[in-house]
Amino acid sequence: MTADVLPFFVYGTLRPGAYNHDRFLLGRTGAEEDAVLPGALLHDGPGYPFAVPGEGRVAGALLTAAPGRYGELLAVLDRLEEPAGYERVVREVVRSGDGAHLAAWVYLAAPGAPLGPVIAGGDWFRRP
Q: Where is the Gamma-glutamylcyclotransferase AIG2-like domain positioned along the sequence (predicted)?
């Protein structure tokens, strides 16, 4: 694992407005902006989604840690995501507000993750 200080791209239950956002992120983030992850598909999972590389895009949010909270935020997300079948990788995301391309940590499905059907449109909030 690398120690690079990067923002985090979240696309499921950790997005602002989703049920795990306040539970795990409240007070730990400084900025939260809409963003998309190009080159990925979103799959349904056992109560939460999985992103995998593919021909599509995934809607989500780009989160920047609050001042002095980066290590804590990274640790909380790793403890939550890795046992659930994700692996943290660096990917390029596009910030919706200004179209900027930025490197960010993204939790993608690890090998063997319980992938369900593809979510058309790549947006967990707009799934059927």
A: 8-124
